[in-house]
Write a structure and sequence with these properties.
Blueprint lengths: L2 E3 L2 E5 L5 E3 L4 E4 L6 H7 L8 H16 L3 E4 L9 H4 L2 H13 L1 E5 L14 E3 L2 E3 L2 E3 L11 E3 L4 E7 L2 E10 L3 E3 L10 E2 L14 E5 L4 E5 L10
Parallel strand pairs: 4-5, 5-6, 6-7, 9-10, 10-13, 11-14
Antiparallel strand pairs: 1-2, 2-3, 3-4, 8-9, 11-12, 12-13, 12-15, 15-16
Helix pairs in contact: 2-4
Length: about 230
Amino acid sequence: MVIEICGSQFVPDHRGGLYWPDEKMLIVSDLHFEKGSSFATKGVLLPPYDSRSTLAVVKAICDDWMPETVIALGDSFHDGEAEARLSDLDRQNIRSLTSTYDWVWILGNHDPEPPKELGGRVMHELIQGAFTLRHEPQPLPLTGEIAGHLHPCARVQTSGRRIRRRCFVSDGRRLIMPALGAYAGGLNVRDPAYASLFQDRFTSWVLGKDQVYPIAEKNLVADPGA
C-alpha cells in the first residue's frame, strides 16, 4: 500500500506514521506529549499515561521501519511546559529515540519553542527535494507539501453502520498527516477547513487495526450536526 504524491511514493503505517523509502525517512505528527497533565492543571483528570503510550507507538513504528531520519511534524508537545512535566522514564525514552535516529523537531503552534534537553535538531520547516514538510498546511495553490495540524479523521458509512477513524488525506499533490498522540482529537475531512487545501477530489487513507484503507471522497460523510 503506497500513497503517491507528486510522483514519489510514501508508505502509510496503520499506527499513523508515514515512511518515505527514497529518503529512508519516517514522518510522525502531532504527538501532543503531556496533554493529559495539561488537562489536569485545569481540573480535567485523565489517566496520566498519554506520553508513554504515544512514545511506545512511535518506538514500535521506528523499530519496524528502521529509518535513518525521523521528522516530528510539530505539536510534539502540548504546551510550553510539557517538557518539564515529562516523567524521568518518558524523558529517557525520548532521548533514546533522538540519539538513535537523525531526529528533527518541526515547531508547531502548541510548541513554538524547541525542547531544551531532549536532543534532536529543530526547524520551522524542512525542504527535502520537491517536498516541504511543515506543521500547518498552507492555502492553495500548493504542491509537494506534507503537513499536520488538522488531525484529520474520516467518517465512513459501510455495511449499514458508520465508523470514524484517524486518517491520512491526500489528493496526490499534498498530504495531511493524522495526529499520532494518544489524546489528540480529530477534525472530520468534510469540515470546511479542508476546502482551501484540496481543489479536486481527495482520498482518505483510514487507519485500521492492521492496515490502512483507502476510502474515496464520495464515501465519506460529515459528523452528525456538522
